[in-house]
Design goal:
The protein contains eight helices and nine strands. The protein has 271 residues and is α/β, with parallel strands linked by helices.
């Protein structure tokens, strides 16, 4: 069966889209900064992903579109909306079927997800009461350090005696960091303390969801090398490196669901 489907993940900080053909191959993908209007974000992401498809197709030519993420209800082109937890699980399953546990860090929340051999969600735990440890939190922390997120992450890797960050609140943690600077603490040690505090929060959620081997990270914060290192130290094992951009996992899962829905509709139409 010929044609293309799309999965669009509209998050609080970034919109992601993946265009897939009916054989399951990814033909285009995009990550764009979120706009105030989720519909505008989805249109931008989908248009950019479609621009990479050799056939030069338009949104109206897509066989099926699945929306996910916090803005999924505002994706006007979506035939269906599916939760980001379900889509991240499916996206990781498509990327690496051996993974059984996911830590997903988005712009506004952290999720621990356990899944079965089919990619279905067995259990999950979510921290959505405070911004501490989320993508927004890391952006704010990087500003306190007067650097971008990548530089902040690399700085934390140079620590020799990581500082203890005790606060579980994003605002108070920022105040604690400023206080450590005033005490002339090594910036690398302070940065490492921030990473470790977030890693500990991730471990708590993973335990609530049910840790099973293999374990991976999704979301934009999966690119934070400092966080990955300290999380691996606490887990006592390495995290699985996904063969695709971890920030695209929700959109990949959504596109896989779209592919299955389109195939089912075609089968019913020909019956």
């Amino acid at each position: 069966m010929n044609g293309f489907v799309c999965g669009c993940d509209v998050g609080s900080t970034f919109g992601k889209a993946v265009v897939m053909n009916m054989d399951g191959a990814i033909c285009g993908h995009a990550i764009v900064r979120s706009k105030i209007d989720p519909e505008e974000t989805s249109d931008l992401a989908i248009s950019e992903a479609l621009s990479q498809v050799d056939d030069g197709i338009a949104q109206d030519d897509l066989l099926y579109v699945v929306g996910t993420g916090y803005g999924r209800a505002r994706i006007s082109s979506a035939n269906e909306n599916i939760s980001e937890i379900t889509c991240h699980a499916m996206g990781v399953h498509v990327a690496n079927p051996s993974v059984r546990t996911i830590i997903d860090i988005g712009g506004q929340d952290i999720k621990g997800i356990s899944l079965d051999e089919s990619g279905s969600v067995k259990n999950f735990a979510m921290n959505d009461k405070c911004a501490a440890g989320t993508g927004r939190f890391f952006e704010n922390m990087a500003r306190v350090f007067e650097m971008d997120i990548t530089s902040f992450s690399e700085l934390s890797l140079r620590a020799t005696e990581p500082c203890a960050i005790s606060s579980q609140c994003g605002i108070f943690a920022e105040t604690e960091v400023i206080s450590l600077f005033s005490k002339k603490k090594n910036p690398a040690d302070v940065a490492a303390g921030v990473q470790i505090s977030v890693a500990k929060r991730c471990i708590t959620l993973l335990k609530s969801a049910g840790i099973q081997q293999e374990i991976t990270m999704t979301g934009g914060c999966a690119k934070n090398r400092g966080l990955r290192k300290y999380l691996e130290n606490l887990l006592g094992c390495g995290l699985v490196e996904l063969p695709m951009d971890p920030q695209l996992m929700g959109a990949i899962g959504a596109s896989e669901f779209a592919r299955k829905r389109a195939a089912k509709e075609a089968e019913q139409a020909s019956a």
